[in-house]
Amino acid sequence: MTDCHGETGCITCGDVAIEMTVLRVDDVRLLALCASAGGEKETVETELVGAVAPGDELLVHAGTALQRLRAA
Amino acid sequence: MRYVDEFRDPELGRALAGEILSLVETGRHYKVMEVCGGHTHSIYKYGIDDLLPENVELVHGPGCPVCVIPMGRVDDGIALAKIPDAIFTCFGDMMRVPGSKGSLLDAKAEGADVRMVYSPLDALRIAKQNPDREVIFFALGFETTAPSTALTLRRARAEGVPNFSCMCNHVTIVPPLRALLDSPDLRLDGFVGPGHVSTVVGARPFEFIPADYHKPVVISGFEPLDVLQSVSMILRQLAEGRSEVENQYSRVVPYEGNVTALKVMSEVFELRPHFEWRGLGFISQSALALSEAYADLDAERRFGVPGVRVADPKACQCGEVLKGVIKPWECKVFGTACTPERPIGTCMVSPEGACAAYYNYGRYATEREVV
Fold this sequence. Notes:
Chain A is an all-beta fold.
């Protein structure tokens, strides 16, 4: 799980969204295992961005993808 | 790093600083408010204000989710955390926000089971792992975070997790902006609009600012060149006598926002008639509560909370800092009685709080000036 604390504090409290890449998709539960640029993995809700595929890059905040930045 | 290094290029930064210089009128003082705490953090971290002409002043706005939580809500959260056998979950910085009798971290030290989570989904996972205990999630944040809470509540309903509930403290960005614009003690020329909130709500909610108040808004990304370019776009609008909403962060923010997120939020939440903001007082229709359809997952209704209003500490001037009336270092207790290690006010807790951001980065600028 991605640490709550970024460089100096909680990234969720700070309204910070991070780019993550989709590794694996659970189409039934609308969840995806994603990795940040630093390699940290996290389960992400994907309902708000529609169907995703491995390699897609998402903007993630508080465990939820808010936008798809780039398709694989 | 891809999509990061390009937005930190020093040559481009110098070119933008030159462009900004060419846009300002000598003798005119410009006050531009960055609404979002993430921008405040970037401005101090990268010394962006050092690159601006002396007559362009960046004023820090109320967009730090932790900073605007009043003491009474912290006390209510602590009351829930102390329910026997309950597990209380919240985001990291919130644990350090002082209430009238200590913080959630203090409550944890006294024996309450308070756990830090990164997302609402983590809190739901804890509930599923502990079916014999009540798990309460302290939800906070602007429209960036509210969709996460909404999805998790819907998931809790769909998966049947009866021991999960939520104390909702989500706030919305437009009402405090309108309150600031109506405030007689602050004259602003334009706004650097919140990038990640706009990912969800889009640009349309900010159209009232040029329409009703004739001031420019530029929705901005968070890298140093994003912020510099946004300031430049605001100054260009002012120089050309325009006031409109522009989107500097179009690589992320669609003009209409995330329509699915807005739909889920409208299903799960309803507007509170009024909500207290730290330092800003009660602002009508500025926060979200769980809708009637989700009332059974509302921790405040399930357990009841004291709901006592607690005045801000007298020494703390977070209210003036949040309204941009004073700079962090002008507060009487800044850096002495109030530090990130032992905060008195909320603005010193989160790194996006203006006081913590200035304490961590900006004070070096003052030291440079002294030398």
